Amino acid sequence: MTIENRPRPTELLTHDFYYELPERLIAQHPADRRDQSRLLVLRRQTGEIEHRIFHDVIEYLNSGDVLVVNDSKVIPARLLGKKADTGIDMEVLLLREHAPDEWECLTRPGRRARPGTVIVFADGKLRAEVKEILPGGNRLVRLHYDRTCHTLPDLLDEIGIMPLPPYITERLTDASRYQTVYAKTAGSAAAPTAGLHFTPELLDAIHAKGVAVVPVMLHVGLGTFRPVKAERIDQHKMHTEFFTVTEQAAGTINAARAAGGRIVCVGTTSCRTLESAADEDGIVHAMSADTGIFIYPGYRFKATDALITNFHLPESTLLMLISAFAGREKVLAAYAEAIEREYRFFSFGDACLLM
Question: Is 169 among the domain residues?
C-alpha cells in the first residue's frame, strides 16, 4: 500500500521558497554537546520569535503532551568499489531493501552501471550485481557475500561509509553523532536530523515532566531530499519511503489528543509519518506502508500540533512542509532573523520549534 496525499494545486512556485544563505552558516560538524545547539522558537499564530538553547525545549512541553520521534537508524550505506571487469572506480549508495539482499540504490557514474554490471567492494568481500534500471534512474542490485562469515549489517559496518549530505565537506570523526540516541531500526540513508539534539538526560527529564516519548519509524531516503525541479510545486513527484506506526504508538497518541494533550513531532519525518497514518478526523491508525505524501501550503494538518525541526535548504520539500505548518511568510521572516543572528543551518545545525 502506498499513501499519497496532496493538497489542492496552488499557484506557488518553487522559487517562492528561495532564500540566500551565506556558505559560512552551513554547519560542518555537530555542536560539542547535542542539547547545546541553539533553538529558535516560532509561534505560528503571531509570528513571535524567541531565541533559546535546545535544552530549554522542555519548558515548552506540558504534562500530557506526546513527543513523537523517528527511531530509524542510519546505515553506513555509501560503498566505494570498482567495476569488476575494468577496475573503474564506482560508488553505490544503498537506499532501500526491496527483498533480502536486493537493494534500490544510486550509482556513480550511473552510465557505467548497466544491467549485468558487477561492482566489487573491499577486495571481494561484497559484490553488487546490477539487475535492472528502475524508473527515475535508480538501480536495483543484488548483493553477494559469504553468509557463513558475515551478516550484511556487520559487513556494512566494516566497509561502508556514513552517507553525509554533499554540503558537509568536513570529515565526520565520530559516526555516532550522525545518529540519534534513540535510533533502533536500521534502514535510513540519512539521519532524521531534528532528533540529533536530544540527549538521554534530556529525554529522561521530558518523560519525568509527564510527556510521553513515542517512537514511530520512517526510513529516510530520496523522498525527503530529492530536489524540486518543477517550476510549480504541485508538479513535483515525491519518492516513496517506508514507515511503521505500531498499535501502542497509535493508542498513546490518540488517547493524549482525546485528553487535550498536544502531539509534538520531532522532525519532518515523524510529521509525515503521522500525517500519512491519520484519517480526516485526526485519528492515527497503526500501519506499515509506503508514503509519498507531499506537504506544502494549502495542506490541512490532521495529527501534528507542534514541530521540532532543523533549518532546511532553500526550495526544498522540507521548507515547503514547515511553510504549510507555520506560514510561508512567517517562516521566511524567521529564517532571515536566524541568518542575521548567525544560526547554524542544515543537518548539523541549530533547531526550530514551531508551535
Answer: no
- Choice between 166 and 333, residue whose per-residue pLDDT is larger: 333
Q: How far apart are the C-alpha atoms of 117 and 248, rounded to whole Å? A: 45
Look up the pTM and report it: 0.94
- Distance linking the first and last C-alpha atoms of the chain: 32
Query: In this structure, are residues 291 and 2 in contact, taking their beta carbons and an 8 Å threshold?
Result: yes
List helix spans (H) across 171-228: 200-208, 222-225
* 3-class DSSP assignment, residue 314: coil
State the total domains in the chain.
Answer: 2
Q: Concatenate the DSSP letters of all residues of 46-97 into one string.
A: T--EEEEEGGGGGGG--TT-EEEEE-EEE---EEEEEETTT--EEEEEEEEE
Between the CA of residue 2 and those of 5, 71, 221, 242, 256, what are the distances in Å? 10, 21, 15, 9, 27
Buried b (16+ CB within 10 A) or exposed e, 314-350: ebbbbbbbbbbbbbbebbbebbeebbeeebbbbbbbb
Whether 36 is covered by a domain: the verdict is yes
Query: Residue 136: what pLDDT?
Result: 82
**Alpha carbons 309 and 311: distance in angstroms, whole number:** 7
Residues 195 and 310 grouped into a single domain: yes
CB atoms within 10 A of CB 204: 11
* C-alpha to C-alpha distance for 55 and 67, rounded to whole angstroms: 14
Q: Which domain holds residue 318?
A: 2-74+174-354
Q: Could you tell me which of 162, 88, 84 has the C-alpha nearest to residue 129?
A: 84
3-state secondary structure of 241: strand
Tens-digit pLDDT profile for residues 218-241: 999 876 667 899 999 999 988 889
- What single DSSP character describes residue 136? T
- Residue closest to 120 by CA, chosen among 147, 75, 88: 88
